[in-house]
Specification:
Length: about 300
């Protein structure tokens, strides 16, 4: 591990030992062009190389308003080697929480996930039914956070390629001003650009709890149920599903990276980012950019291969 990586790990959290996940993140090259708006240093959109049509659709909606996201070539979890997969999850150790179901990937199973109650010391586990696609999504988000930190950005907008533009996205610049004035510009980590994620019928699906990890017990777990309207435009939240459109402050980037470096990749990204004990999250009360409920997904299977 080179000196730059060691410095980066010390930067995000002086108390942690540098974790292997850093070695499997992906760079963000060729960032020329204007990929920012007022109050947001850089705008990223995660997109698989095999899904150009999804980027064209989502970015095209934003382009109409003069917003041009940088296309981040997503980590394709379906193409990760077994060696890589087995360095990213949690290696079960005696003394870890018992009775939790996990998923393993063995080379001899030819890609088929193996599910069992976590119990074998030294065996690598992800959360139950964690797909290789979901692992790629985690690595994609973490890669962006690292790139943003390395680039010196204070505020970024991270989108996935299945968003729906509801209102002029430039409105988020003014909303950041308002949230800064309301709570303080150093007092929030993440701002979501819609109220909540939605199901296939368009109904909002709130998250009020958390998923178990074998190696982490959150302090004050009741915080995850927080749903507090702090103004007519914002609510403070303790947890939520969906990472398809989130504005992240530098403090939030550091907290999320530090947490996953310490505790390893285990859960889907939208069940991880709210676990750090000091994370401070808000959401708008009127959707600006939300999820496209009819979007095709390659999370559970590489459906792009069927095109």
């Amino acid at each position: 591990m080179n000196i730059l990586m060691i410095f980066f790990c010390l930067l995000i959290s002086p108390a942690i030992v540098c974790a292997d996940v850093i070695d499997y993140l992906k760079p963000a090259p060729n960032k020329e062009g204007v990929h920012s708006i007022r109050n947001i240093d850089f705008i990223y959109m995660i997109n698989l190389d095999r899904r150009p049509e999804k980027f064209a659709r989502s970015a095209g909606q934003l382009n109409t308003y003069g917003v041009f996201p940088y296309r981040f070539s997503a980590v394709n979890g379906w193409e990760l080697t077994y060696e890589t997969l087995n360095k990213l999850g949690i290696k079960y150790e005696p003394g870890m929480k018992q009775g939790i179901w996990g998923t393993c990937y063995f080379a001899e199973n030819n890609g088929t996930p193996h599910h069992e109650v976590m119990h074998v010391p030294g065996r690598n586990y992800f959360s139950h039914c964690m797909s290789r696609g979901a692992i790629g999504i985690v690595l994609s988000h973490l890669s962006i956070l690292k790139d943003a930190l390395d680039s010196g950005y204070e505020t970024i907008w991270v989108m996935e390629d299945d968003v729906e533009v509801i209102q002029n996205p430039n409105k988020m610049s003014d909303l950041i001003d308002k949230l800064d004035a309301l709570v303080g510009n150093k007092k929030w980590d993440i701002l979501f650009t819609d109220q909540d994620t939605k199901n296939k019928h368009g109904d909002y699906i709130p998250c009020l709890g958390y998923a178990l990890r074998p190696n982490y017990d959150p302090q004050n777990p009741e915080r995850f149920a927080t749903r507090e309207n702090v103004s007519h435009e914002f609510k403070k939240i303790g947890a939520r599903y969906g990472a398809y459109s989130m504005i992240v402050r530098r403090s939030g980037m550091q907290k999320i990276l530090s947490f996953i470096n310490t505790y390893k990749v285990f859960l889907p990204y939208d069940m991880e980012f709210y676990l750090p004990k000091s994370i401070r999250m808000y959401a708008v009360r009127e959707d600006v950019v939300s999820t496209f409920i009819d979007a095709q997904s390659d999370n559970g299977a590489p459906n792009y291969s069927k095109k």
